[in-house]
Specification:
By secondary structure, the chain is mainly alpha-helical. Helices cover 83% and strands 0% of the residues.
Length: 210
Amino acid sequence: MQEWIIQTMNQFGYIGIMLLIAVENIFPPIPSEVILTFGGFLTTYTDMKVWGVVLAATVGAVIGALVLYSIGRFFPPERIEGWLDGRLGQILHFKRQDVERAAQWFQKKGRITVFVCRFIPIIRSLISIPAGMTKMSMGVFLLYTAAGTFLWNTVLVHLGAFAGESWESVAQFINLYAHATLIILIVLFIVGAIFFYKTRISKKNNKENV
């Protein structure tokens, strides 16, 4: 995949970077660290400029985020609440109130969450879906998405330009950070899920014993 990414960027320049980052946002397994650091390296021996690469990557990220945001709009909290009222809710031990609380929390903290999550691998793409589900203002969503991705892109592109021919070392380091972060998030999710289910089942048993 890395070879295909490099060929695309060499052939199509800024447009290639924009399209690759857009696809990366929709399909997170595509390595953005390769796209951005190699993009920085390209500026050392081509006519491409650092800020041109940063802007192309940011536009691509916003396009990809909008796609996932639009998908989220098709699954509003009301629809999920309807699913949880049935068999699915009984299996997962989720209730309508859980969705309402999650939606309320996101409405209060959604802006900073969208911004901060742009620095977290995988999550920086997926966060666009709950933003759409809770009907966050598109203007606000675009503002915080663009700001977060602009900073992330700026750092990686500059690192690639600074590293020059050693850009792959930077990409490997960022990839290590991505995997470590993902593992931590998975562990936290599992711990949180176990705690949630134990708490929910304990409350249910207490009600039945009353």
